[in-house]
Structure formats: structure tokens, C-alpha cells
Design brief:
alpha+beta, 3-stranded antiparallel beta sheet, 409 residues, 11 strands, 12% strand
């Protein structure tokens, strides 16, 4: 059975739901919505319409980047169409996983950030190497569609219906912008389910070439890092990457291009390595602190608007942070207990974030009076549900097999 046919198969949908539940990718609300969608066979009219060439126009949304005033364009399809595209992408990623080299770690089977970092750290003498890191500017939305489609035809030729649908959606320049239909170049449309698959595919030739050259290299979607034994080789490899991107119609963010010499710290995918020590990167911890600060301000406004007590506001704050850190009823891909705990060798940044969060909990509970803040004790925080990142990390290290995030040890 082809992938497009599986989109009408109840068995395929049930397997998809089981996978999502097993991986804890769904909030309770998302789980209920998907279960209802499958039970009512909401996918059938979508698949039927897609087969005849009908599909709605995506809506353009401008989303503020984390910790920045800049905004990025994302594209959203209605829930039924988006959900069908999710299953199609899920099946395509699994069928064609072998197409991608081992140096590509984004959105693959049994792959991801943890594996990428472990592969780099396992390389002998990584601390004595020269590194180059680059971030591709607006990668998803900058991919030239007419250059991508021949790669899609070469790769997905066995799935003509999926290929035809994706090609049709990519070539349609129409989007809904504030209720009006406009035309714009949109690449593979960041925010759509299939964008991750096509972003993997577009630079697969670069990934293969770097492997063929014997360079220690890793790519996670639009993030690239490589290591060499000397500065000249590093500079040549970095120049090759940038020239390859230029020829592909892409460019790097100059402010995010970083080179390091032996002994200097390097960061990749939220992880910082320095002198054999693995910690959370300063960029990632900075972004999290900014989120903590914004959440505290938002909850203070909510407290005033609703007339809520200090304790109610603090409880809401703790619940939000526990979802962020420990995936308690959350589909957040940056859950720290899963993303960072297996890689860290120090509690330095975890302790720093703990203290930062505790200060904002005290401020939320007591207002701006700093002397009064410390009447709200650590024991009181714990009684309201607060869980220390640092203590959780030590629990994880003590019993990795039996550890469950965010529970009392």
C-alpha cells in the first residue's frame, strides 16, 4: 500500500496516534482532538479532495522570535489538512530515512539532538580541534522551490500522489494574509508539517560531500557545525559550506557564524562544550531566562485582572515551568529533562536557572519589596509544586533507567 493510500487507512491513523502517545508528543487537548479526528474519519474528505487537486490556501502568520523583536513567517493549514499532512510527512520520513547521511540529525528515525552531540563528543581529541559553525538565514522559507522539486522527484518517485500534492502546494504562491489572498515566495513554508522533510532533503548533497571528505560534520536542519585538525582546513571547509549554500540560493547569518580554536568553548544545538565539560549554552539559558521573566510579568497582570491570590499566581507559574522543564502534559520539544539531562556533566547552569526562577517566584508572591521576598521560603515553593532542575538532574544521574521527570524522589 502506497503512502497516499495509507492516509485513508484507519490502521495507519491508529498506529500514528499510538506513536504520538508513546513519545509523549501530545498534550491532553491535542490527544483528544486527534483521537476524535480519527474516530470520525475526518481525514477521508481531505484525502479525497487532495487526490482531485483541491487543497486550501495556507494562512501566513508572523511569529516573534524567542528573545528578539524580529518576526518570522510561518504558514498554517486548517486542522484537518494539517493533520493529514502530518501523517504523510511521518510516513515519508520513515520510508526514506536511508536517503539521508549519518551526519544529518534533524527529524529522523531514532535520531536527534542527543545523538548529534554524543557523536561529536565521542570523537577522539574533540577539545583539540578547530571548529566552524553556521546558521542558514531563514532556511525553510528561502529554499528555491524549482531547484528543490527535481530532488523530490528523484527521491519520492515511488510515491507519485504524495509528490504531486507536495509539488502543487509548493508551486502555489498564494497565501492568506489578514484575510486577503496575496502571492509571495515562501520556500517550503516554515510551520507546515512537510517543511522539515524538505529542509532535510534540499542540502543532502552537502551532507554527503562533507562525509566523503572525511570531515567531522553535523547538520540539524539549518544549523551546521564542523571540526578539523588545523585552522587552514577549518577555513577551507567553512568557505566550501558557504559557497555551496550560495549556489543553492541560500546564505548564512553573519552574526551567527562562529569559529573556535583548540581549548575555546563551542556550542551547538543548545549545548556548550569547554575543556571536557558539557553544559547548557549561554544562548539557551538566556532565552529561558527571558521566557521566565515574560511569564512572571504576564502572570502578575493576570493576577491583578482576575483578583487572584499570590498563592494562585505562584501555582500557575510553577505549573507552566514544570511543563517547560519536565513535559508534564506538554508537547514542548525543548523539555529540559529529555533534551539536556542525558548530556550534561555539570549542574552550573541548572543551578543558575533555579536561582533565577526562585527569585521570580518570590517577586510574584511578595511584590517588589525585596526584604519581604525571602519570607516566601524554598520549602513553601516545594509545597506549591516547585521542582528544582538541579535536584532533578542529580536524581536522573542516580537512576537513569527508573527516572521519571518532575516526580518526587
Amino acid at each position: 500500500m502506497g503512502i497516499f493510500e495509507q492516509l485513508s487507512s484507519p490502521e495507519a491513523w491508529q498506529a500514528f496516534l499510538a506513536y504520538k502517545r508513546d513519545m509523549r508528543h501530545l498534550t491532553r487537548k491535542e490527544d483528544a482532538e486527534l483521537e476524535q479526528f480519527i474516530r470520525e474519519e475526518g481525514y477521508r474528505p481531505v484525502v479525497s479532495a487532495a487526490a482531485s487537486g483541491a487543497f486550501p490556501i495556507p494562512e501566513l502568520k508572523l511569529i516573534r522570535k524567542s528573545g528578539s523583536s524580529a518576526k518570522r513567517a510561518v504558514y498554517l493549514y486548517p486542522y484537518p489538512e494539517n493533520t493529514v499532512l502530518k501523517l504523510m510527512t511521518f510516513l515519508l520520513l520513515r520510508k526514506y530515512d536511508a536517503v539521508f547521511p549519518d551526519s544529518l540529525f534533524s527529524f529522523r528515525v531514532r535520531c536527534g539532538v542527543n545523538k548529534a552531540i554524543r557523536r561529536l563528543l565521542s570523537f577522539p581529541g574533540i577539545g583539540k580541534m578547530y571548529s566552524y559553525k553556521a546558521d542558514i538565514r531563514d532556511y525553510f522559507n528561502s529554499i528555491p522551490v524549482e531547484r528543490l522539486i527535481p530532488l523530490m522527484e528523484e527521491t519520492f518517485g515511488e510515491e507519485p500522489e504524495c509528490l504531486a500534492l507536495l509539488s502543487r502546494l509548493l508551486r502555489d504562491r498564494r497565501v492568506l494574509d489578514c484575510g486577503s489572498v496575496v502571492e509571495r515566495d515562501k520556500g517550503v513554508m516554515a510551520g507546515t508539517p512537510f517543511a522539515v522533510l524538505l529542509a532535510n532533503l534540499y542540502l543532502v548533497a552537502l551532507d554527503r560531500e562533507m562525509e566523503a571528505r572525511g570531515i567531522l560534520y553535523a547538520r540539524y536542519s539549518d544549523d551546521i557545525i564542523l571540526f578539523t585538525g588545523d585552522a587552514a582546513s577549518r577555513d577551507r571547509a567553512g568557505a566550501f559550506v558557504e559557497e555551496t549554500l550560495r549556489q543553492a540560493g541560500l546564505s548564512v547569518n553573519p552574526e551567527k557564524r562562529v569559529t573556535t580554536d583548540p581549548g575555546e568553548p563551542w556550542s551547538f544545538l543548545g549545548i556548550r562544550y569547554e575543556q571536557g565539560e558539557v553544559d547548557i549554552s549561554r544562548v539557551s539559558s538566556g532565552k529561558l531566562k527571558a521566557k521566565i521573566r515574560r511569564r512572571a510579568r504576564a502572570l502578575k497582570r493576570w493576577q491583578v485582572r482576575k483578583g487572584a491570590t499570590d498563592e494562585q499566581a505562584v501555582k500557575a507559574f510553577i505549573r507552566a515551568m514544570n511543563r517547560k522543564f519536565f513535559n508534564a502534559d506538554s508537547s514542548n520539544e525543548l523539555t529540559w529533562a529529555r533534551w539536556y539531562f542525558p548530556l550534561l556533566t555539570t549542574d552550573r547552569t541548572l543551578h543558575e536557572v533555579d536561582l533565577f526562577l526562585q527569585a521570580h517566584l518570590r517577586a510574584l508572591y511578595s511584590g517588589r519589596n525585596r526584604k519581604k521576598n525571602y519570607t516566601f521560603t524554598y520549602a513553601q515553593m516545594k509545597a506549591l509544586g516547585y521542582v528544582s532542575l538541579r535536584h532533578e538532574w542529580y536524581r536522573y544521574r542516580a537512576d537513569k533507567a527508573g527516572y521519571f521527570p518532575g516526580t518526587e524522589g
